[in-house]
């Protein structure tokens, strides 16, 4: 305790009790006076405690109620704090002045005995405040009375303010950093198939993903391949090659008897009848040569038999009829001598018959002009002329 001469009435603190006494030439100051101290003060000064301004004994002193304070001497009542903040109205001395609310708390009313904890989803990093601050996006707070908000963990995000938790990233998204308000969609050629992912995985060889934010990759279709990881698109096999099934990582050459002309075709196609392919990886089938025929998908020409004819591009052999035709070469048949003789005789007979029929018809049905001519040459009907009388002859 400190003491010095003043000759004034002083306010002595008994615990948190204030009262006024006649101090004589001494003033006592302190924060933890007891009844014994007051008695000692009286004994040393040989004076009787005298209350100034009001009748009060030591037992009549009362402490300032929570939310109020006394910061001057000789007062009969405590003063109320305007608000529990540090604005010049209140001191930080416990028991004498109102104290500011600690961090994570606030008080927006007067004459309150305690501060309020900040609700979940908010914070208060300062003391003596009248309100709390909502947690920003990318942060959260699931406990009351906190001075700071917590950042969202990796693999989570929170786009809204004043939240009590963060949201795990959806499949097809990821978040590698803390305190983020949004998750990031997986890029082309990547995926994430679970929630709360910290990163995306690259598509395996033989698969692809042409969109962002997907939870799986797709197998390359037939005729297309991807030989590396992280493909956004599969590539078509070149001419003469193919991918026979989906999810392939490399192309294979067309088999014999097959060909593929361009990348626009997915698979190698069998050679058409009349063509063949005797090598792997051809883009075109070759025309079957003379004397041979090629069925669909042939890898080599098939030789014709002796009685068969096979012109270039034959899909199957032809035959010369053994009686009426004869094989000239491997590509054509001609009529046989027998066939020619028979046809010649038949033609001659037919010609003779035609001529005979014409003559016969002419005799049976003469033309009208011939009939008229014969009638003109005959004598006229009933004439008595002697010139018209046929002469008679007698014998000698």
Beta-strand percentage range: 15-25%
- Terminal Cα separation, in Å? 222 Å
Count of alpha/pi helices: 3
- Assign the structural class, choosing from mainly alpha, mainly beta, alpha/beta, alpha+beta, or little secondary structure: alpha+beta
Ranges with pLDDT <50 over ≥5 residues? 1-60, 83-96, 381-396
Number of strands: 34
The radius of gyration computed from the alpha-carbon positions, rounded to a whole number of angstroms, is 64 Å
Average predicted confidence as pLDDT: 75
In percent, how helical is the residue content? 10-25%
Largest sheet: 2 strands, antiparallel
Q: Per the principal axes of the C-alpha atoms, what is the gross shape?
A: rod-shaped
Strand order of the largest sheet: 1-4
What attributes does this structure have?
single chain, 396 residues, alpha+beta, two-stranded antiparallel ribbon, disordered C terminus
Could you characterize what this model shows?
With 396 residues, the protein is α+β, with helices and mostly antiparallel strands. It has three helices and 34 strands. It has helices at residues 35-45, 337-364, 368-377; strands spanning 2-4, 9-14, 17-22, 27-29, 68-69, 79-80, 105-106, 116-117, 122-123, 133-134, 139-140, 150-151, 156-157, 167-168, 173-174, 184-185, 190-191, 201-202, 207-208, 218-219, 224-225, 235-236, 241-242, 252-253, 258-259, 269-270, 275-276, 286-287, 292-293, 302-303, 308-309, 318-319, 325-327, 333-335. The strands form 17 sheets. It has a two-stranded antiparallel sheet with strand order 1-4. A two-stranded antiparallel ribbon has the order 2-3. Strand 29 (292-293) and strand 30 (302-303) form a beta hairpin. It is rod-shaped and about 180 Å long. It starts with a strand and ends in a 19-residue tail after the last helix. 28% of the residues are buried.
């Amino acid at each position: 305790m400190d003491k010095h001469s003043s000759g004034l009435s002083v306010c002595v603190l008994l615990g948190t009790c204030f009262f006024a006494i006649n101090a004589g030439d001494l003033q006592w100051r302190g924060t933890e006076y007891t009844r014994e101290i007051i008695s000692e003060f009286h004994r040393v000064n040989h004076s009787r405690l005298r209350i100034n301004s009001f009748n009060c004994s030591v037992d009549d002193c009362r402490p300032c109620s929570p939310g109020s304070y006394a910061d001057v001497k000789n007062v009969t009542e405590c003063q109320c704090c305007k608000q529990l903040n540090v604005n010049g109205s209140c001191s930080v001395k416990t028991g004498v002045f109102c104290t500011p609310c600690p961090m994570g708390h606030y008080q927006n009313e007067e004459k309150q005995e305690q501060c309020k904890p900040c609700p979940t989803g908010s914070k208060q990093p300062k003391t003596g405040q009248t309100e709390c601050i909502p947690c920003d996006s990318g942060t959260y707070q699931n406990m009351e009375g906190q001075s700071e908000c917590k950042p969202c963990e990796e693999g989570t995000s929170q786009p809204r303010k004043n939240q009590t938790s963060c949201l795990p990233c959806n499949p097809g998204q990821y978040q590698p950093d803390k305190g983020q308000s949004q998750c990031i969609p997986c890029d082309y050629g990547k995926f994430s198939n679970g929630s709360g992912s910290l990163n995306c995985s690259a598509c395996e060889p033989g698969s692809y993903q042409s969109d962002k934010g997907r939870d799986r990759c797709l197998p390359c279709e037939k005729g297309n391949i991807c030989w590396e990881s992280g493909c956004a698109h599969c590539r078509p096999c070149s001419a003469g090659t193919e991918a026979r099934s989906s999810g392939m990582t490399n192309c294979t050459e067309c088999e014999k008897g097959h060909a593929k002309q361009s990348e626009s075709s997915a698979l190698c196609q069998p050679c058409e009848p009349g063509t063949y392919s005797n090598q792997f990886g051809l883009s075109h089938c070759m025309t079957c040569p003379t004397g041979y025929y090629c069925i669909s998908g042939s890898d080599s020409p098939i030789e014709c038999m002796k009685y068969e004819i096979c012109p270039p591009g034959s899909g199957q052999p032809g035959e010369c009829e053994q009686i009426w035709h004869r094989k000239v070469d491997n590509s054509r048949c001609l009529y046989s001598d027998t066939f020619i003789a028979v046809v010649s005789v038949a033609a001659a007979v037919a010609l003779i018959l035609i001529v005979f029929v014409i003559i016969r018809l002419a005799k049976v049905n003469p033309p009208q002009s011939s009939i008229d001519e014969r009638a003109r040459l005959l004598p006229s009907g009933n004439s008595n002329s002697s010139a018209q009388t046929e002469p008679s002859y007698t014998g000698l």
